[in-house]
């Protein structure tokens, strides 16, 4: 098993075990979420293309466009300004965004290897059946990036 395939397998196992536990940064939505309401026509974009466009929008400082890719439940929890705040905190830790290096799709999970000035890391995006993002894991320092509501 290649290193990349092994990493995706480990991520899938962890996500399966932790599905009911909120994920860092944007969190995860339960599998029983309602269908997404269309707010932007994603047309025939593949999940991989959607993930890449989300990353491009987020790190291209187009927070309104990045927000549109989120599942409506996440959109209720975080505003485009909230995305901007979290992106800025994240970039302080990893350095300036450089570029997307690689992306892999495994079911509803997309792993995107991204280069920053201080680190190259793999960001994990989770999608619902409607092609909307239900969770994002930015592993550099997830604890300070959580948007989970205090309960």
UniProtKB/TrEMBL annotation:
InterPro entries for the chain: DUF3887
Alphabetized Pfam families for the sequence: DUF3887
Chain ranges of the DUF3887 domain: 51-135
Protein name per its UniProtKB record: DUF3887 domain-containing protein
Organism: Parathermosynechococcus lividus PCC 6715
